[in-house]
Batch of 2 targets.
Target 1
Amino acid sequence: MPDGWEVQYDLDPLVNDANEDDDGDGYTNLKEYKRKTMPDDYNSQPSKAMPWLPLLLGE
Ligand SMILES: [Ca+2]
Ligand SMILES: [Ca+2]
């Protein structure tokens, strides 16, 4: 994840926190980044209207 993105959401660019889930919404920081949702906001989650997206992203 780009450092600028991490700083924007109060994540630490020096730590590999891609697999952390800071806001506890069930999506890792990396997944939130890929889906352009907010990793520090529980209510900002990847849309469940696009169940095919993980396939597209190779997850
Ligand atoms: Ca999360
Ligand atoms: Ca979130």
Target 2
Amino acid sequence: MVRALVGPGYENVLRPLLFRARGGDPERVHEDMIRALEVLARTPGFRSLAGLLTRSASQPVEVAGIRFPGRVGLAAGMDKDGRAALAWQHLGFAFAELGTVTAQAQPGNDKPRIFRAPASQALVNRMGFNNHGAHALANRLAVAGVYRGNGRAGIPLGISLGKTKVVEVEDAVADYLTSFDAVHPHADYIAVNVSSPNTPGLRSLQDGGALADLLGALTARARQFNPTNPVPILVKVAPDLTVEQVDEVLAAATDTGVSGIIATNTTLSREGLAAPDRHLAEEAGGLSGRPLSARAREVVAYVAAHTDLPVIGSGGVMTTEDAKRLVDSGASLVQLYTGFIYAGPALIAAINEEVG
Ligand SMILES: Cc1cc2nc3c(=O)[nH]c(=O)nc-3n(C[C@H](O)[C@H](O)[C@H](O)COP(=O)(O)O)c2cc1C
């Protein structure tokens, strides 16, 4: 009963308030939300209150050797510094991908750097990996008692790694390894982000040779730390790759013993922006949400058909139907970011109920 009101309550009441709050600045609203979740997760009673509003995942699936309580997770970028790491379980997510963090703390791009496109149910962002660095994330998770496999966050936590902006692409491997060394004790899986459009040169790491070097170094390091049960490493790809480029990624992933593919990150395309949002086509950055749904599905289907590796689908999951279609296209799990902004926790509850 209470739960039935959550969806309309969010969309008709809370979302309009949130979209107007803080002078309409999405980044400040986002910071407020993360801060609130961080506090709430430590507040007795939050869990029971959240339990009334959300529906936890209850149909476990095993992917990459990890047991997930359900299929829908939080995509990377929402909780870059892991501040709300203990809260996501209470909103119904079956897993959360923290980060992207980089080896060195960095401020990200100049503001404003995130734009809402409400008529298109989309966002454009060029955050540029603003984060406090991999060591700060590791310390925060250590203080919270979060270690790989111990279930402290209630759900599996992935940690997404990216390249520090000031580090040259040629030196990227060492930079990722520094981050890996810092965070791996706290991660149920590691996501290698080579697909954000907002760090110059980053996407060139998706090219076969460079990617094989990077993934080879990371999987070797994971085996070095734990020869019998290395932390699974997944690679996240852009939706803007050609078929040949996807083939190169899959070959590099298979050759280096990667455990799965996350498809996809945001797109450079501006197709699907509705007329009232067309001005955002001029803003640099990645587009997410509804305009990405069809392309994400296409990439997921291609990847699933051309490899045995499990696929985590990400991109344009705005409704339960979108989640179902991504699963039908071959995704073992799905993640969302923009759908959570537009539909709130009710979407997670609905996916848990209808998709499992
Ligand atoms: C504001 C914002 C920041 C993001 N930051 C990251 C990031 O740090 N690392 C990453 O891998 N993806 C990042 N993403 C991409 C999302 O994780 C996701 O792959 C993408 O938005 C597509 O899913 P969606 O349509 O559900 O939002 C970001 C997306 C948004 C909107």
